[in-house]
Specification:
Blueprint lengths: L1 H10 L8 H10 L16 H21 L4 H8 L3 H11 L7 E7 L5 E4 L2 H8 L11 E4 L2 E10 L5 E3 L3
Antiparallel strand pairs: 1-2, 1-4, 3-4, 4-5
Helix pairs in contact: 1-2, 4-5
């Protein structure tokens, strides 16, 4: 309805400040009513509840970090935003474990190395072209190269990160 009226007004060369255009604007955009800019009523005990929630999360974070969860996974488990988790961890002096996405095991010496990115793996193993073709696991020369997600806990043990 509004488009047809707008086409009719355009064909008749009606100026844009004419009152007929107001009806077209109302039909196309909808009427915008001004809302009262009131502050929401203060809820008693809000600050206290926030502090209690922070205390509870402070007790939960170390256990989830030791289980290998990243910030976004902790946030999903607790039902809060990842940035809230990051802010809380910084406030409490905690840090989630560093994630390593590549694992290279020398089949001859049985030495295993974990790498954050492909360039650090290339520097250590001298494997370049084959890395981009590796989907999950491959043997390249004496190396067993695996792509995944691992972390090292506080005791120095390596684990596969939870998904």
């Amino acid at each position: 309805m509004g488009r047809l009226l707008a086409i009719k007004l355009l064909n008749n060369n009606v100026p844009e400040d004419a009152p007929e255009w107001q009806k077209v604007r109302d039909l196309l955009c909808g009427k915008k009513e001004k809302k009262a800019n009131k502050r929401p009523a203060k809820v008693n005990g809000t600050k206290k509840r926030q502090l209690e929630a922070i205390k509870k999360r402070k007790q939960i974070y170390p256990r989830l970090i030791e289980q290998g969860y990243a910030n976004w996974q902790i946030g999903a488990k607790l039902g809060i935003c990842r940035s809230v988790v990051s802010h809380d961890l910084m406030r409490f002096g905690l840090q989630a474990h560093q994630r390593y996405h590549w694992r290279a095991t020398n089949t001859a010496t049985k030495n295993t190395g974990y790498y954050i990115n492909a360039s650090s793996l290339q520097a250590d193993t001298r494997i370049v072209k084959a890395l981009w073709r590796i989907d999950r696991k491959a043997v390249v020369g004496p190396w067993l190269i695996e792509r995944g997600c691992w972390y090292q806990d506080s005791q120095g043990n390596w684990y596969e990160a939870p998904k």
